[in-house]
Design a protein that fits this description.
By secondary structure, the protein is of the alpha/beta class. The protein has 9 helices and 7 strands. The protein has a 5-stranded parallel beta sheet with strand order 4-1-5-6-7, with helices on both faces. It has a two-stranded antiparallel ribbon with strand order 2-3. Helix 3 (60-71) crosses helix 9 (233-244), helix 4 (89-99) runs parallel beside helix 5 and helix 5 packs parallel to helix 7. It is globular, with a radius of gyration of 18 Å. The protein starts with a helix and ends with a helix.
């Protein structure tokens, strides 16, 4: 079933002077934020943290607006990208009233799990409960909600990954991928969407289907860890539009 957001877009597109503009919010982590490559920060004393490439204009939030503007060219579409690199579902719950709700979004896309999963199985309940609270608070504020699963973390330590710190991080992520740890977080995200009766945009399932058909999904990560390439952000965007239209 199509969502109310498409009706609002159609109304604005057909009667720009009298219909209200449409506002779509995005709440998430570094992928939502538009983060891509990550490099070791090198100093005279050696590695000191990481340098991250930020390109919000290439994020799936920006691509979603482009697609919707193509479909509804006369509609005013406002995008509020409240993604923050390093954020988790409990973090999003804590800051949504400050960062998102003042803009009165018609629809909010919630996408978490990449950082939450670092807590291991002990963090799954906290992740699930934070997602449920985010969804319920957004619904109470009058917003439609889509829960979107992120892409998988790396399945291997990529040979092009440079720096001891990044390679150690990749080793931990690949271990979580191999033992199903990250998958259990995605199952919790699906459960949160089902329990709160909101649409699920299961991008994770699409990436896993590619993996099962022989695609090297680690090659599709711009940082070889947990950030999809610029091209793959379009998969998120098109999947979101499909969900708005009630398609799987």
């Amino acid at each position: 079933m199509a969502m109310q957001i498409t009706k609002k877009l159609a109304q604005k597109n057909s009667d720009a002077f009298h219909a209200a503009p449409v506002t779509i919010g995005f709440l998430g982590d570094s992928v939502t934020n538009g983060c891509f490559e990550v490099y070791p920060a090198m100093t005279d004393e050696g590695e000191r943290g990481f340098d991250v490439v930020f390109e919000p204009e290439n994020s799936y939030a920006a691509h979603t607006r482009k697609i919707l503007s193509l479909l509804y060219p006369k509609a005013q579409i406002n995008i509020i990208n409240a993604g923050i690199s390093g954020d988790s579902a409990p973090g999003g719950l804590a800051r949504m009233e400050r960062d998102l709700l003042p803009y009165h979004p018609d629809l909010v896309v919630v996408c978490y799990g990449l950082n939450d999963s670092g807590a291991g199985d002990n963090g799954i309940a906290r992740y699930h409960d934070a997602l449920v609270s985010i969804i319920n608070n957004l619904k109470d504020a009058g917003c439609e909600v889509i829960v979107m699963t992120p892409q998988p973390i790396c399945a291997r330590v990529h040979t092009q990954l440079r720096g001891d710190g990044l390679r150690a991080m990749a080793k931990n992520l690949a271990a979580s991928f191999a033992d199903g740890g990250f998958d259990r977080y995605m199952q919790a995200a699906r459960a949160a969407a089902e329990e709160t009766a909101v649409p699920l945009c299961d991008v994770y399932a699409k990436w896993m289907a590619m993996f099962e058909h022989g695609v090297d999904i680690t090659d599709l990560l711009s940082n070889y860890l947990n950030h999809p390439t610029r091209e793959l952000h379009y998969l998120f965007a098109y999947s979101l539009v499909h969900t708005m239209f009630g398609l799987s």
